[in-house]
From TrEMBL:
The keyword Membrane applies. This is TonB dependent receptor. It is found in: Cell outer membrane. The keyword ATP-binding does not apply. Its main location: membrane. InterPro entries: Beta-barrel_TonB_sf.
């Protein structure tokens, strides 16, 4: 093992493809995504969170991007609204030890004429758990909308040594949208504070008390974002500009400032031929024992041809990255070729050959593994080649599906493992050689008249590392199963099941390699509408009661619950 490569990993979650006003305009923004591992937080029901935001969305105007669709939807048929998120480098690990999502009953009432969008929620449970949340949204004018949310979730005790594994999280978010006939402006501010303890220490002899102050960690994050997008269909050039500033500071005087700006544009050359441009600029500074100035600039021009049977795009992804501490200043070019064929309505066969440099930041790494030690070095990961193919589709009976196979080659592929100097803290181990990852993903979903929803997603991974022993703490199989059932107008039930297999860890002090047990996490949530304004909820998390370890020496809480009331207004 070459410990010189024990660096901080980046949540190499590459949200490369983000649909902008059209199912075929893919945004390669390189942000960390969705499969970030929140070691202690709760599973937020992303479905419900999205619906809440949509409650004050405005209908977008027709735009030039609409012409870039591979297949024009038939009248009366639903647009395919499902997608498998590519497991970039943060290999599809779901959030575990869930928390309290937005109430199902609150979301189900969104379709009612006199809807109550705002709510106050409070609850408590075992382990000294407390939940407090308030959400307020409004539309003071027809073209102006805003949302505000304040949430606190904490546990006074944890799975190890009582208060020594306590945790608390507080977040505040405010956002607004201003939409006119020719443009849209949106802005937002968020603050997150997390307080927790490194409880993965060795068992102490009887009578020995661990000083909580020496194992405490506090992370404060601030973020601001601003976006401008033209919505005038009569304008030839379609474009969108977004910028965001994020700051982070922990209890050990580590800090990070990260500013990113993203531009997307589309110019129709003819009815079926388009010129597309994506450009990103990221300027960041990481301060710890050393100060690191890290920048990344990306330009991705592509051309796209579209007709009713297929669409094909081809271009170059040129990326420049600099790092003052690592003495890096290099520019790389990668292919950007994608094909989508529709042999018949409702079915898409797709393939692609792409590459990129995946940004890793301290913020993205901590979102994936909060047990990172101090003075960690952050490096970007080069995805030299990503060859993929698959099929996706939707039937008229409410069934949708997607299957995909990808073979990806990385440089500086990372994994996490317990540090050599302190096994209760983690380091990111980067493989400087060529790492090959085979990914097979499959997903299927079914909706029945909004009364029952289910989706099942599985990912299989095969790793071929080069200069390191193993891809420590990376699963070879993940399974996510979500279900939502509306029993009546007053009773709603959701169930989530998560499974991870194939995790390996090593104690570098003893040389012992451990295969961690399979993780199986079942969570249930029940909402009951008492009156038009009041509802009761019960969340049962980790119903199987397993003190599983996503990361070595960090067992999770067993069966835990939160029960409470919600008032909507």
């Amino acid at each position: 093992m070459n410990y010189g490569f024990i660096k901080q990993k980046n949540s190499l979650s590459m949200t490369h493809s983000k649909i902008l006003r059209s199912s075929l305009f893919l945004l390669a923004l390189g942000f960390s995504s969705q499969f970030a591992i929140a070691q202690r937080g709760e599973i937020e029901s992303q479905t419900y969170e999205i619906l809440k935001d949509k409650s004050i969305e405005f209908a977008p105007a027709d735009r030039v991007f609409d012409k870039v669709q591979p297949v024009k939807g038939e009248t009366g048929k639903k647009k395919v609204s499902y997608q498998i998120v590519d497991p970039e480098i943060n290999i599809a690990s779901p959030k575990l030890t869930p928390a309290v999502p937005a109430s199902s009953d609150e979301q189900s009432r969104k379709d009612e004429p006199d809807v109550l969008n705002n709510y106050v929620k409070a609850g408590g449970g075992n382990y000294g758990r407390f939940l407090g949340e308030i959400f307020v949204g409004g539309r003071p004018k027809e073209d102006l909308a805003f949302t505000t949310q304040l949430k606190h979730l904490s546990a006074a005790n944890g799975p190890v040594d009582g208060k020594n594994s306590a945790n608390a999280a507080t977040s505040f978010k405010i956002g607004g949208k201003y939409i006119r006939s020719k443009y849209k402006v949106d802005a937002g501010f968020n603050f997150d504070r997390k307080n927790y303890y490194f409880y993965g220490y060795k068992p102490q002899p009887e009578g020995v008390v661990v000083n909580r102050d020496t194992i405490r960690q506090t992370i404060n994050q601030f973020g601001f974002n601003l976006g401008f997008e033209n919505t005038d269909a009569s304008v030839l050039v379609d474009y969108s500009v977004k910028t965001g500033l994020n700051t982070l500071k922990d209890r050990y005087n580590a800090s990070e400032i990260d500013w990113g700006t993203n531009l997307t544009a589309s110019v129709p050359i003819s009815e079926t031929f388009f010129a597309l441009l994506e450009a990103d600029a990221y300027v960041s500074q990481r301060v710890d024992y050393f100060t690191y100035n890290r920048n990344l600039f990306r330009v991705k021009p592509t051309f796209k041809y579209v007709n009713e049977m297929f669409s094909v795009s081809a271009g170059i992804n040129a990326v420049n990255e600099t790092d003052s501490q690592l003495d890096i200043n290099r520019t790389k070019a990668f292919p950007a070729v994608n094909l989508d064929v529709t042999p018949f309505s409702g079915v898409h066969i797709f393939a692609g050959w792409n590459g990129d440099i995946v940004r890793n930041t301290l913020r993205s790494m901590l979102s994936e593994n909060q047990w990172l030690g101090p003075n960690v070095l952050v490096m970007n990961t080069e995805k030299t080649s990503d060859i993929s193919a698959g099929v996706k589709g939707e039937t008229g009976t409410g069934i949708n599906y997607e299957g995909k196979v990808a073979y990806t080659s990385y440089k500086n592929f990372y994994s996490y493992n317990n540090s050599l100097s302190d096994t209760s803290r983690f380091s990111a181990i980067f493989d400087p050689g060529k790492t090959k990852v085979l990914t097979i993903s499959a997903q299927a979903g079914y909706n029945f008249n909004e009364l029952f929803k289910t989706s099942l997603k599985a990912n299989f991974f095969d790793y071929a590392v080069d200069k390191v022993e193993e891809p420590w703490h990376r699963p070879d199989l993940t399974l996510n199963w979500f279900n939502a059932l509306t029993i009546s107008k007053k009773l709603f039930v959701t169930a989530d099941f998560y499974m991870l297999r194939g995790l390996k860890a090593k104690n570098f002090q003893t040389g012992e390699v451990t295969k961690l047990p399979v993780i199986a996490d079942l969570n249930l949530k029940i909402d009951y509408l008492l009156t038009r304004n009041f509802s009761a909820f019960v969340n049962l998390n980790n119903v199987l009661g397993k003190n599983y370890q996503r990361y070595q020496y960090y067992p999770q809480q067993g069966l835990n619950f939160i029960a409470g009331l919600s008032f909507s207004f």
